[in-house]
Write a structure and sequence with these properties.
The protein is mostly helical and 335 residues long. The protein has helices spanning 10-22, 26-40, 46-59, 63-74, 87-112, 120-146, 150-155, 166-173, 178-191, 198-211, 215-226, 237-254, 257-270, 293-297, 299-307; strands at 285-287, 324-326, 329-330, 333-334. The protein is globular, with a radius of gyration of 22 Å.
């Protein structure tokens, strides 16, 4: 765990927060860090603590908590003492997480509301989300363009001076010149001596190929990265989940049902927190066999009606091995 007596805590949790995210344990990491942040209070490192908290809450799907942490970081004047991270890096990470938050707000609302464009809340809140998304993106583009070390520090994956994760990097570069990044990352893959990073370069190149309209080659490259025997199935859950997400998207478009079902279930198994933000519709089996006759005729109708308000579709002919959602009574509640 990070050194609890350090006068500057940003350098510790900056790395630890990404490890919790990569392992698929963002909430566990957030709860640990929040205790440390509250214990230290408004001292050096409070701003960094909130940035790292926001990152972990984002990937835990707790957007409100992430927004609170980002606001705390934004309004705190961090003193960069006894750390290699500078003010410009602090602000860059802040803006990157604001971009991710805005994008996740949009995706989560669309996930929960099948006819979101008819919702008054959509027209009330979405203009602000889109404004934050694009204004932040333009700011990040300007900062990257003005940074002479951008290729080494940001595009060179897992550089010691890089303060954003590979997943956060994708949220930025996916909206710019794909040809440039495909060429740049292919060169890094060829020259980077760290063999364990080749699957990360393949992941980026596969996604870029898919965005360029070549889903077949993208699928082959992504599944090749997924089959790398050196992949760490504990510490690289985020990478595996993202690969399954893109492969599921491709399989759905190509109508490859066995592959679609496999990748969808693997995404859910590895990182279920990503489902609401992945633009993929998850399939479940609803099991109500544990409910009494009274539940079936009473409260169950209310639950089904509530479920129908989400982006869920009932398919009585559903075949295949999908996760099962079981409703049962515990004391006076249905769970």
């Amino acid at each position: 765990m990070p050194d609890q007596g350090a006068r500057s805590r940003g350098g510790h949790w900056q790395g630890y927060s990404t490890l919790f995210v990569y392992r698929g344990e963002p909430l566990q990491g957030a709860l640990k860090l929040q205790q440390e942040r509250d214990k230290h209070g408004f001292t050096i490192g409070y701003g960094w603590d909130n940035l790292c908290l926001a990152r972990m809450y984002l990937y835990a799907g707790m957007l409100t908590e992430a927004e609170k942490a980002l606001n705390n970081a934004d309004h705190f004047k961090e003193v960069h003492y006894n750390t290699s991270f500078r003010e410009d890096q602090y602000r860059f990470m802040l803006k990157t997480l604001k971009l991710v938050l805005a994008e996740y707000r949009i995706r989560s609302f669309q996930f929960e509301h099948p006819n979101y464009w008819l919702s008054l809340d959509w027209w009330k809140f979405s203009p602000g989300w889109y404004f934050q998304k694009y204004s932040t993106l333009y700011q990040l583009a300007d900062e990257l363009a003005a940074n002479p070390e951008r290729e080494m520090v940001y595009y060179h994956l897992f550089h010691t001076e890089n303060i954003i994760s590979f997943d956060e990097l994708w949220e930025i570069i996916s909206r710019f010149s794909r040809g440039f990044f495909e060429k740049t990352l292919a060169e890094f893959k060829r020259t980077d001596p760290r063999s364990n990073l080749r699957r990360y370069y393949d992941y980026f190149l596969g996604r870029l190929r898919y965005e360029d309209g070549d889903p077949d080659k993208a699928y082959d490259q992504l599944t090749e990265a997924l089959s790398d025997p050196a992949i760490d199935k504990i510490r690289e859950r985020m990478l595996m989940a993202r690969i399954h997400q893109v492969c599921a998207t491709i399989a759905r478009e190509k109508d490859w049902q066995p592959q679609y079902q496999f990748h969808l279930n693997e995404l859910y198994r590895l990182y279920p927190q990503l489902i609401p933000f992945s633009e993929i519709e998850m399939k479940f089996r609803l099991d109500i066999s544990a409910l009494s006759d009274e539940d079936h005729t009473g409260r169950i109708g209310e639950i089904v009606e509530e479920l129908q308000s989400f982006r869920l579709e009932a398919d009585p002919d559903l075949e295949g091995d999908f996760p099962t959602l079981q409703l049962r009574r515990a004391e006076d509640k249905l769970i």
